[in-house]
From TrEMBL:
<protein>
    <recommendedName>
        <fullName>CxC1-like cysteine cluster associated with KDZ transposases domain-containing protein</fullName>
    </recommendedName>
</protein>
<dbReference type="Pfam" id="PF18802">
    <property type="entry name" value="CxC1"/>
</dbReference>
<feature type="domain" description="CxC1-like cysteine cluster associated with KDZ transposases">
    <location>
        <begin position="130"/>
        <end position="231"/>
    </location>
</feature>
<dbReference type="Pfam" id="PF18758">
    <property type="entry name" value="KDZ"/>
</dbReference>
<dbReference type="InterPro" id="IPR041320">
    <property type="entry name" value="CxC1"/>
</dbReference>
<dbReference type="InterPro" id="IPR040521">
    <property type="entry name" value="KDZ"/>
</dbReference>
Length: 893
């Protein structure tokens, strides 16, 4: 290959910083300090600021003189101090301007050198097989430079196994970074780098950071100690040990940039559509186009959530680079445009803010709750979007404020996911978050109670935030650009790992769905032999009856408004307080013993407790508008039922909180001994109030059953509830299904068997949906794998067979690929190894799923019909004329 990447524009020979420049700045400041024509030496904005400062000082002094504090205020203005402060302000502005200019100059230099650096990187990566050959670190600069213009400079070279100072040959026609690249090292600055790091070290750190998220400082300290045991230390000109943390951080950013450019180049060469890119980079199960001829609709389930731990402090760093938003993030302009659109529609439709008791009960990040924390941050968090396989679709950087609508809507608008299917949209809440909402919201939005969701839990972003939690401490005080690029790189690794584990994920979910369905069918089978006391024909429980009871339960709750629910809550609280007063009166009367002085203290405590209970009772009565007559009437059964309902409602709140405390222990990921101890201690602190409430609930339920349903008193489900049993109840258990509905007399509210059957019916429906979705997702993933392999093979074949000028003229992707100042023929030769590596990785992906265990993969393939498998294999063999794709998850290109 002829010499490549010649520099068209000559750059000045790198020298040390000019002493004259500093002397000129010093002379300028000296003239300014002496008052020699200072206004001609500064910018107009500084002069205006000076004028405003003088005006403010005069007004402030005048106001102090007008107030008589008994202190002499005659002319205490210090002109010398003011002059000194003004000079310091000018120096600070001058320093800031110099720093900004230097940063802009560095950014421009990187933009100029990156295309050539990318081309040389691809050339040497293919030549050395990713720097794995024995001669990888020999001098290969002759491959792109053979000029005679030589000059040498000493550069510190750091490798994974050693470090050294070496005199490197440089020239004017080729950028310095390319000369270092020829030795197997990547420099840390675009011009005259003084330190460079080997690709072995950068690759090792990339894998280590992806899995462990190690910070730069401890990593470089560990590398320094290790390398100094094997080679001489690298010192500065003053003989001090050199710190390479900043150099290494900059080099890692460039290394990641090169990898991102390689991926983007592959997308351009393969001419992937928007949906194909989503399938390749995000999730082929959700965004892959199925070759299924049955045109089975494939629902797309995504979740949106915010995280406000991933914030950035405004004073953490002075970043003069303009904010560069990675492709994984929504651009700030799109978010601002969506905010303007929302404001316009609110104005046109005269939308007024309304209060929602259920929404207010759910703790979310908003401007009022977190204003004191956010006022010191320029980036306050992240808004994420992921599919049901936990693959990240997109992110949005939240700047100032909380979970506002503009962020999720901007994400959906960017992906243009639902332009043709907006009438098919269904909204829901994540499974765990739905538990903190009232029962009416759960019925309307919980995925467990509505059709089409399968077993999707909507908690994918919670798992993502847990995965990204190790970045919080380091990125909170990094530069804004570094924060966004690090998050994008980590998310890309998260998606790549998810694609490799996709088949394993589908197999595991399929087995869970099968197990849940089998357990639910056993419950329905046990109910099918029991007599249905609500059937006039004395029959047994049937699926149709249980389904109709669920429909009646949903309709009953939807027909009751929030006002009625609040009234029942207030009435139940009134009755509960009345029962407490009755108990206290009874205990107080039983303790009156004038001949027992030891009982005096307890009597005083009881009197005080009695007074407090009476005050609470009067407060509830005032809210009710006086003591209702129907509560003191003869409706004892309703009063007893409300007491049970009230106690059970409070138990449900404790159950949700206990589940939230225990959730980190049930995620399957290690949390460490310290955190486990804290979680268990928090659970123990909840035990005492829960036991007190359990005692009250058992008392109320036993009293109700004894007086009004004695035949049900000895049933297993009506035995006293213990803390052990309570703590092991799942939030989906039938015990909680009537927690808000004890004021109904329908079968679903009276019978535990009916509630158990309803829960089993819902599980059967959701598991059936889940199994259908998994089969379709596996078809999508397999179809994508076959189609992507075909695209790679076709592109490689065309480049190899038609690599001449005729192909170069027809290839539309050539102008979009920037690899430096080279012709199209050389460009295609650099692209070919990239595609070859892509197809090799694609072929190795199935073996990487289970370590090459093909038997496990066959278990998943068995979920497909043999005819479907044969149809896809026939299509993959080249039958491109068979049917099109009409799935509902198509994304507009």
């Amino acid at each position: 290959m002829p010499p490549l990447f010649k520099r068209r524009q000559s750059s000045p020979k790198p020298t040390q910083r000019q002493i004259e420049e500093r002397q000129m700045v010093l002379e300028r400041l000296q003239r300014l300090s002496q008052g020699l024509d200072p206004w001609m030496l500064i910018e107009p904005t500084i002069a205006a600021a000076r004028t405003r400062q003088e005006t403010y000082d005069q007004a402030n002094n005048q106001s102090l003189q007008d107030e008589d504090y008994g202190i002499p205020t005659a002319d205490t203005f210090d002109e010398d101090n003011t002059q000194r402060n003004f000079i310091e302000d000018v120096q600070a502005i001058h320093t800031e301007a110099n720093q900004s200019e230097r940063q802009n100059r560095t950014r421009t230099q990187w933009e100029d050198v990156l295309p050539s650096l990318d081309g040389a990187y691809l050339l040497l990566k293919a030549h050395t097989k990713n720097w794995t050959l024995p001669n990888s670190f020999d001098n290969h600069t002759h491959m792109f430079c053979d000029c005679n213009d030589n000059h040498y400079r000493t550069v510190d070279l750091i490798d994974l196994n050693g470090q050294k100072q070496e005199r490197i040959r440089f020239c004017l026609c080729t950028p310095d970074l390319l000369h270092l690249l020829g030795h197997g090292y990547l420099g840390s600055s675009p011009v005259a780098p003084t330190a460079a790091f080997s690709f072995d070290l950068l690759g090792f750190h990339n894998h280590l950071w992806n899995w462990c998220t190690i910070a730069y400082q401890p990593f470089m300290q560990a590398m320094k100690l290790r390398l100094e045991e094997r080679s001489p230390p690298l010192l500065t000109a003053l003989g001090k040990s050199r710190d390479f943390r900043t150099n290494f951080s900059a080099t890692v950013d460039i290394y990641r940039n090169l990898m991102n450019r390689t991926d983007s180049m592959a997308n351009e060469v393969l001419d992937l559509t928007k949906q194909e890119r989503l399938a390749r980079d995000t999730c082929p199960a959700c965004f892959g186009k199925s070759m299924d001829l049955t045109n089975t609709p494939s629902p797309l389930i995504i979740c949106l959530d915010g995280n406000f731990q991933q914030r950035h402090h405004a004073a953490a760093s002075k970043n003069y680079h303009p904010l560069m938003t990675p492709d994984r993030f929504v651009q700030p302009e799109a978010i601002n445009a969506m905010d303007a659109t929302i404001g316009l529609h609110e104005q046109l439709n005269q939308i007024r803010p309304t209060t929602d008791k259920c929404a207010d009960a759910h703790t979310a990040a908003d401007d009022k709750r977190n204003n004191s924390t956010w006022k010191a941050c320029d980036d306050t968090g992240l808004m994420g979007c992921c599919c049901r396989h936990d693959a990240v679709v997109s992110l949005a950087n939240i700047t100032g404020g909380g979970e506002k609508r503009k962020y999720p809507l901007a994400i959906l608008q960017q992906r243009n996911m639902f332009s043709e299917h907006q009438n098919c949209l269904t909204f829901g809440t994540s499974v765990f978050h739905s538990y903190v909402h009232n029962w009416k919201c759960q019925i309307e939005f919980s995925p467990r109670f509505n059709d089409g969701w399968g077993l999707s839990d909507g908690e994918g972003l919670e798992r993502l935030w847990s995965f990204l939690s190790s970045l919080i401490s380091s990125l909170r005080y990094s530069t804004r650009n570094h924060r966004l690029s690090a998050l994008a790189h980590k998310v890309s690794f998260h998606n790549e790992r998810g694609i490799l584990q996709l088949v394993q994920w589908l197999r595991q979910k399929y087995r869970i769905a099968s197990s849940k369905r089998l357990d639910a069918e056993k419950i329905l089978g046990s109910l099918a032999v029991l007599r249905n006391p609500f059937d006039t024909h004395q029959g047994t429980y049937t699926s149709a009856f249980l389904k109709s009871q669920w429909i009646n339960q949903v309709n009953f709750q939807k027909s009751h408004n929030d006002t009625e629910t609040e009234e029942n809550e207030q009435l139940a609280a009134f009755l509960d307080q009345e029962a407490t007063l009755t108990r206290l009166r009874s205990e107080l009367n039983g303790m009156v013993d004038l001949f027992n002085p030891s009982a005096y203290n307890r009597i005083l405590e009881m009197v005080q407790e009695f007074a407090m209970a009476e005050e609470q009772q009067r407060a509830i009565a005032r809210n009710l508008g006086g003591v209702p007559a129907h509560l003191t009437g003869s409706d004892d059964e309703r009063k007893a039922r409300l007491l049970v309902w009230h106690a059970k409602s409070k138990l449900y709140v404790h159950a949700v909180e206990l589940y939230a405390e225990r959730q980190p222990l049930n995620r399957g990921t290690p949390v460490g001994t310290t955190l486990t101890t804290r979680i268990l201690a928090a659970m123990d602190r909840r035990k005492k109030p829960i036991q007190a409430l359990l005692k009250k609930f058992n008392l109320y339920r036993t009293d109700y059953l004894t007086r009004f349903a004695p035949s049900q008193l000895n049933l297993p489900e009506n035995q006293p509830l213990t803390y052990h049993t309570f703590s092991n109840l799942s939030l989906d258990h039938s015990f909680w299904q009537d927690v808000y509905l004890y004021h109904s007399r329908e079968p679903w509210a009276l019978s535990a068997d009916v509630r158990k059957g309803i829960q089993a019916i819902l599980i059967v429906e959701r598991t059936s949906e889940e199994m259908v979705m998994i089969k379709q997702e596996l078809k999508n993933a397999m179809s994508w794998a076959v189609g992507y392999h075909e695209k790679l093979s076709s592109s490689i074949h065309h480049i190899e067979a038609q690599g001449g000028e005729e192909f170069n003229a027809l290839a539309e992707w050539l102008p979009a690929v920037k690899l430096g100042d080279i012709d199209n023929t050389a460009k295609t030769k650099l692209v070919l190894p990239v595609l070859t590596d892509q197809i090799a990785e694609h072929n190795e992906a199935p073996q990487a799923v289970d370590g090459g265990n093909n038997a496990d993969a066959d278990d998943v393939v068995e979920m497909l019909d043999p005819a479907d498998v044969m149809a896809m294999l026939n299509l993959g063999a080249g039958d491109n004329n068979a049917g099109g794709n009409t799935d509902n998850n198509n994304v507009n290109p």
